[in-house]
Design brief:
The chain is of the alpha+beta class and 216 residues long. 15% of the residues lie in helices and 31% in strands.
Length: 216
């Protein structure tokens, strides 16, 4: 699979209903040169699960498991009365809860990420920023776990159209070369970020390859 063998895959979905869109992780652009950027991402909570299969089937299965969690297969904290996220008011809504035994719907955010390791894929879904480890509903499925990802800095290359394997390998190599020219030391594997649902016209799609790097 060329340079995409250990590619991290991520994407976002739009919620039906007009201009409703998903929240994205917060970041600061440090440098921008043509299609390249250096970004500093804030720490974030993610839900993750491990699945088997090829890239496509693992992506579908992993997202299915995590979607089941965010759409209600969870146990909300007692007394949680939050309804809307201030950062994404059209997508972040939860009902008032009276006990620990009630479930809560969690808004969808970007990215959903995927990483291969020992024949399995780790699929991650970024949690809405309104939650903390203490307030986030707990998964009922033992195959779903919540972890905190620390703040990280990434090199990024942006591109449109389809994110096929050859195109991604080309963009990954271009990003690695650019980062090497900037004397940046990678600390993570390449990540592919896809920010549109599958029905989006190719020329309107937003894709990115991201690589974490070491900072002083």
């Amino acid at each position: 699979m060329k340079k995409t063998a250990y590619l991290l895959l991520s994407g976002s979905l739009l919620i039906s209903g007009g201009a409703m869109a998903t929240e994205e992780p917060k970041y600061t652009v440090l440098t921008q040169v043509d299609d390249f950027e250096l970004r500093r991402y804030d720490k974030q909570l993610v839900a993750q699960t491990w699945v088997s299969g090829d890239q496509d089937s693992a992506s579908r299965e992993g997202f299915k498991v995590l979607a089941d969690y965010i759409f209600g297969n969870n146990t909300a904290p007692s007394g949680d009365s939050s309804k809307l996220s201030m950062t994404a008011p059209v997508t972040m809504q939860a009902d008032n809860k009276e006990s620990d035994n009630e479930s809560q719907k969690i808004a969808m955010t970007a990215p959903v990420s995927m990483q291969q390791d020992d024949g399995k894929w780790r699929v991650q879904f970024t949690m809405p920023s309104k939650y903390t480890m203490q307030t986030l509903p707990k998964p009922n499925n033992p195959n779903v776990e919540i972890i905190e990802v620390p703040a990280q800095t990434y090199g990024v290359i942006k591109f449109s159209w389809l994110a096929g394997e050859d195109k991604v390998a080309e963009k990954t190599e271009a990003l690695q070369t650019w980062m090497q020219d900037q004397n940046l030391m990678p600390t993570g594997k390449p990540e592919l970020a896809r920010y549109n649902p599958p029905w989006t016209l190719p020329f309107l799609r937003r894709n990115e390859v991201m690589i974490a790097y070491q900072t002083e």
